[in-house]
Amino acid sequence: MASNIPIYDQIAHQTGSRRFDKILLALFAREREANRGDEKEYGKMIEEIEVRVEHRHAILLELEKFGTYQIMNEPLDCLKLAQQEDLDEIAFLTKRRQASLRRATDKSRIIKNLRMVK
Predict the structure, then answer these.
(1) Counting beta carbons within 10 angstroms of the beta carbon of residue 52, is it exposed (0 to 12), middle (13 to 18) or buried (19 or more)?
(2) Phi, psi dihedrals of residue 67, rounded to the nearest 5°
(3) pTM of whole model > 0.70?
(4) What CA–CA distance (Å, rounded) separates 108 from 102?
(5) pLDDT in tens, 78-103
(6) How many CA atoms lie within 13 A of 55 on its CB side?
(7) CA distances from 78 to 5, 9, 81, 98 (A)
(8) How many angstroms separate the CA atoms of 117 and 75, rounded?
(9) How far apart are CA 110 and CA 25, in angstroms?
(10) 3-state SS string over the chain?
(11) What is residue 2's predicted lDDT score, i.e. its pLDDT?
(12) Distance spanning both ends of the chain, measured CA to CA
């Protein structure tokens, strides 16, 4: 007999069990793995942006060695603004990464409790 919750039926079919605790365990395990995957992706994005910031910083240092000419003020300001935006984005992604890790940890605690219920 099918339930009124299609996701329950889908997970029950995949796990081979209709026991509620096993289905909850599978559901939380999926969410935990998804959050861990998100955390890894945020880490990769942060690394890419950090490399971009380092390259941009090197370019800024080289341009500043030439002195302050009127023609160079606008490009320098543009590069500095882009660098600041990248640093802000790194801060945002770091917060998202920490939140993803926190959610994965919460799911791990729930999984641990579900395993002890048996």
Answers:
(1) middle
(2) 105, -175
(3) yes
(4) 10
(5) 888 999 999 999 999 999 999 999 99
(6) 7
(7) 53, 55, 5, 30
(8) 63
(9) 8
(10) CCCCCHHHHHHHHHHCCCCHHHHHHHHHHHHHHHHHHHHHHHHHHHHHHHHHHHHHHHHHHHHHHCCCCHHHHHHHHHHHHHHHHHHHHHHHHHHHHHHHHHHHHHHHHHHHHHHHHC
(11) 62
(12) 25
Count Cα neighbours of 1 within 13 Å in the Cβ-side half-sphere.
Answer: 2
The reported pLDDT for the residue numbered 108 is 92
Structure tokens at 63: 């341009």
Record the tokens describing residue 47, joined without a space: 């690394």
Amino acid letter, residue 63: L
Tell the residue number behind the tokens 């640093």, with chain if given.
Answer: 87
Across all residues in the chain, what is the average pLDDT?
Answer: 86
